[in-house]
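Here is the promised in-class demo. Please do not try to memorize the tokens; focus on the logic of going from shape to residues.
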């Protein structure tokens, strides 16, 4: 059952389907156009699983259209996501699991996106390695809405070079052609592979592996994470030449569009790559990574929402969300230098949490008793609880004494600086 001719049976094998089911349920995800939740997948497959398998074997299975969801981008545009039904996510996952062993050996070592044992951190480390080897000019290529512009025929032709099982290829084509539902209106999917499906990352790597091979053949240093690709060269003239030649290859050979307004030739400290910025350390002269200013501002905006006084939620829930946000962000940017940013953000979070607590206490009597429980003297707690100062003034004066940093930490407030220091001890 390990020959390419029997790939469909590998895909439909019980063990493969069981693994696919477990991964889809673990990943959760939003509902598709049929409204079936991931929690209902087991019962649905128990009832219709055999029928679905027979339909796939007989080439009669028809995937349902994906649900279009628009995600706002920081630059004012939108990112189009296509959410398949949970059943189609399950089938796509089963296909993915049998195709991955075929393609992994063929993908370039400097392609880091959506691959086993590869991650964003590894991509940034490689970028720094090139920069510190003297390649200080960056060709930053921006593919215009890559997932929306993939040519189906070119993609299927590439797949057929390595996948000899016609049933699998046919099923992939059906997913590419399954269509899109936008506000209950059906639209054909003539081009593109919907970003959001389990197969989309692999399909994007299959297409862009052709770019990787071309860049390697030209002897260029590059790093690619999905459709985010940068090329590092030694001079401005070389960078301009590479930009022109690679632009032609992408548009003519791959049939993709390059956004020339966003694609540019830059120095390392002028680019943003995978959320990171780059700077030269004056102490050792080496290029190093840090969170880009845009990534920092995005974090601050998210934390601002989580610490709004008008958000009426339990404090435990609020603190849990803050912890989730901080731990995830620090783990992602852990190879960067952002100690001072941690201190600044910690101060602001504590300030805003004190305002939230002051508002929750509401009544003068409640404030009085709460301050006394915190160990504040009777006369002070009485005076402070009767304060007519605004929330910000209270939080920046006497509440700093009453609700100390130590008390906030004990209450469950996560310190960004503590997380940073913990990560850097481990690293």
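The designed amino acids, position by position:
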């Amino acid at each position: 059952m390990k020959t390419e001719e029997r790939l469909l049976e590998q895909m439909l094998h019980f063990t493969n389907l069981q693994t696919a089911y477990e991964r889809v349920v673990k990943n959760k995800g939003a509902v598709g156009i049929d409204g079936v939740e991931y929690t209902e997948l087991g019962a649905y497959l128990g009832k219709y699983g055999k029928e679905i398998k027979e339909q796939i074997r007989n080439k009669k299975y028809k995937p349902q259209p994906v649900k279009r969801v628009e995600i706002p981008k920081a630059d004012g545009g939108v990112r189009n996501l296509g959410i398949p039904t949970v059943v189609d996510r399950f089938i796509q996952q089963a296909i993915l699991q049998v195709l991955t062993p075929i393609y992994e050996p063929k993908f370039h070592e400097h392609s880091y996106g959506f691959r086993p044992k590869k991650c964003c951190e590894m991509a940034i480390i490689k970028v720094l390695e090139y920069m510190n080897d003297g390649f200080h000019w960056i060709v930053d290529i921006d593919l215009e809405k890559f997932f929306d512009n993939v040519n189906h025929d070119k993609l299927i032709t590439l797949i057929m070079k390595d996948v000899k099982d016609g049933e699998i290829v046919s099923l992939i084509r059906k997913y590419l052609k399954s269509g899109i539902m936008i506000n209950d209106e059906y639209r054909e999917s003539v081009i593109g592979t919907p970003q959001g499906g389990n197969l989309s990352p692999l399909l994007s790597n299959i297409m862009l592996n052709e770019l990787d091979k071309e860049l390697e053949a030209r002897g260029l240093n590059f790093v690619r994470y999905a459709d985010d690709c940068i090329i590092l060269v030694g001079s401005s003239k070389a960078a301009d030449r590479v930009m022109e030649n690679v632009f032609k290859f992408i548009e003519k050979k791959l049939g993709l569009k390059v956004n020339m307004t966003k694609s540019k030739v830059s120095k390392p400290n002028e680019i943003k790559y995978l959320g990171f910025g780059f700077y030269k350390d004056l102490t050792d002269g080496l290029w190093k990574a840090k969170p880009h200013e845009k990534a920092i501002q995005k974090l601050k905006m998210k934390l601002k929402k989580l610490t709004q006084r008008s958000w009426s939620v339990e404090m435990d829930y609020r603190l849990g969300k803050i912890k989730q946000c901080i731990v995830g962000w620090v783990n992602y940017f852990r190879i960067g230098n952002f100690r001072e940013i941690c201190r600044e953000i910690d101060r602001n979070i504590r300030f805003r949490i004190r305002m939230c607590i002051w508002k929750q206490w509401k009544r003068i009597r409640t404030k009085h008793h709460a301050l006394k429980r915190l160990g504040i003297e009777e006369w002070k707690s009485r005076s402070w609880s009767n304060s007519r100062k605004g929330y910000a003034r209270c939080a920046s004066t006497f509440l700093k004494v009453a609700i100390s940093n130590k008390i906030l930490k004990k209450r469950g407030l996560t310190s960004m600086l503590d997380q940073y220091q913990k990560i850097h001890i481990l690293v």
